[in-house]
Write a structure and sequence with these properties.
Strand order of the largest sheet: 2-4-5-7-6
CATH topology of the largest domain: Muramoyl-pentapeptide Carboxypeptidase, domain 2
Structural class: alpha+beta
Bound molecules: zinc ion
Shape: globular
Number of domains: 2
CATH class of the largest domain: Alpha Beta
CATH architecture of the largest domain: 2-Layer Sandwich
Strand content: 5-15%
Helix content: 40-55%
Order of helices and strands: HHHEEEHEHHEHEHEHH
Length: 251
């Protein structure tokens, strides 16, 4: 009797693990192929490993753009002052999400070893501050023109505390040593360009070679490997399927 019970339990276990394509998810190959049809078994395994690691990093990956706005009372959970660390900041006080700090410092130090200065020009901006900037611009240029220059309050990634503007905040930053270095290496530290060139229809924003968002190291790997290295595609995907992966996630 005991033997049969063990046999039965083993058979059930084999059946479950046989269906699940990855130990960290209650998901079958078919489940994944419904949303990522082009991936084969090995690729699905690798993809889910990356998704699992991205989820463990626990970085805020909420989609924020002109069509997806944050509420006026959204404030990041743990803001710290980048000015207190080994970073080249424009102001003494520049706030950022605490979980990005180690990668931020490491990125800056590694760049420095190659003679590159990572100058941090703008970081966290509250809803109220964004509102103020927008209104100033509106009073000067009118609303239509203002909307092309400054984000509406709630529509800026800067309210997340994970977005950063580097250097001159001008298109010419793309051609500086730092601009070139960041585009090539930022993803290794979890920072990716939010608004690439000629992608305004997708991102809702003009090209901003100075504006990066911290999405975590695995977020950046997934963006690069599966989403054509476009941050917006990854964020749209994640906002659509986050719950689906969370509900089927085994830690
Ligand atoms: Zn920016």
């Amino acid at each position: 009797m005991r033997f049969f019970l063990i046999l039965l339990i083993s058979l059930i276990t084999i059946n479950i693990s046989g269906n699940n394509i990855h130990p960290n998810f209650n998901l079958t190959k078919e489940d994944i192929n419904e949303i990522m049809p082009e991936l084969n078994n090995d690729e699905i395994y690798k993809f889910l490993t990356n998704i699992h690691m991205m989820m463990e990093e626990n970085v805020n990956l909420i989609l924020v753009d002109k069509n997806n706005r944050l509420s006026s009372d959204y404030i990041p959970a743990n803001l710290i002052n980048l000015g207190d660390y080994n970073l080249h900041t424009r102001y003494k006080t520049m706030l950022f999400e605490s979980y990005a700090l180690n990668d931020f410092v490491k990125m800056s130090e590694d760049a420095k070893k190659e003679g590159i200065d990572i100058f941090i020009a703008s970081t966290y901006r509250s809803y109220e501050f964004q509102n103020q900037i927008f209104n100033n611009m509106k009073n000067y240029h009118g609303e239509e023109k203002a909307a092309t220059i400054v984000a509406y309050p709630g529509a800026s990634q800067h309210q997340l505390g994970t977005a950063v503007d580097f250097g001159s905040i001008k298109p010419s930053y793309a051609y500086t040593d730092a601009g070139i270095w960041l585009l090539k290496n930022g993803w290794k530290y979890g920072f990716t360009l939010s608004y690439p060139e000629n992608m305004e229809e997708i991102t809702t924003y003009m090209w901003e070679p100075w504006h990066y968002r911290y999405i975590g190291r695995y977020g950046a790997i997934i963006q690069k490997e599966y989403f054509n290295n476009v941050q917006q595609y990854l964020l749209e995907f994640w906002n659509k399927y986050k719950l689906f992966f969370e509900e089927n996630h085994i830690h």
